[in-house]
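Changelog-adjacent note: as of this version, every example in the card shows the full chain rather than a window. The one below runs 272 residues end to end.
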Amino acid sequence: MELIVFTKHFKGQSIEETIEAIKKAGATGADLCVRPGYYVTPENISEKLPEVVKVFKEAGLSIPMITTPTLFVSPGDPAMEKVLVACGKSGIRLIKLGYWFMDKEGYWPTVDRVRKELEKLVKLARKHNVKICIHNHSESSMGLNSCSVMNLVKGFDPKCVGVILDPGHLSIVGEPLPMAFSIVKEYISIVAVKDVTREKYKDENGLDKWRIKPVPLREGFVDLHDLAVLLNETKFSGPISMHSEYNLPLEALIAQTKTDIEYFKNLMEKAG
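Full-length structure tokens:
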């Protein structure tokens, strides 16, 4: 099990600066953000990813996974196979895809469409010896919890498609962690760790709305003790990606991430 940092929060930093930040935070590597505006993008991944993997390795850090753009899900996207090829050649097995959303035809027709696309993606993943992973992201994504994501992945080879279990988002939709783990246990490939609450705000029309608010570990809805126990009971050995989604200056963000990592490590030691 590796505790890594999602590099979405280091946009604009050089690779060397990102490595320094990860080391300061006490993590073992990166959940590398491969999106437009970052050092590695889906378009330049063939050239840039081997270089980044090499620099990370020399620094004693790993890159067990990458995160692709929010809408990066189509097997027909010219960049899709390019990304899978580059990751396979660089030894990065886990690829976090983007998100599907419900079509106007409704939920079940969308499930059918997504599964047809996943069938093609699974073939590509098998061809290049990688695993495509779907994030259980709350609100309106088709994989908003374990029940929903299982409608997408059930029956596909868990060697080629996996689930990113995110207790923060599960706490928003109200799915208990023991049930969530049981539902997708054969597909769990990555665990994303963050803590969240809800906060009320006014929209552009002055109406009251609710949104997710990231907070430091132990201050939100997530039962992190239960999470640590379940990770130990299931002998989870994949990467744990710390999602430090704080609106903070860089140094303060690194410091808070370090505090979160130390707290979570302590929980894991007590649990196992």
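Structural remarks: Residues 89 and 95 are 13 Å apart (CA to CA).
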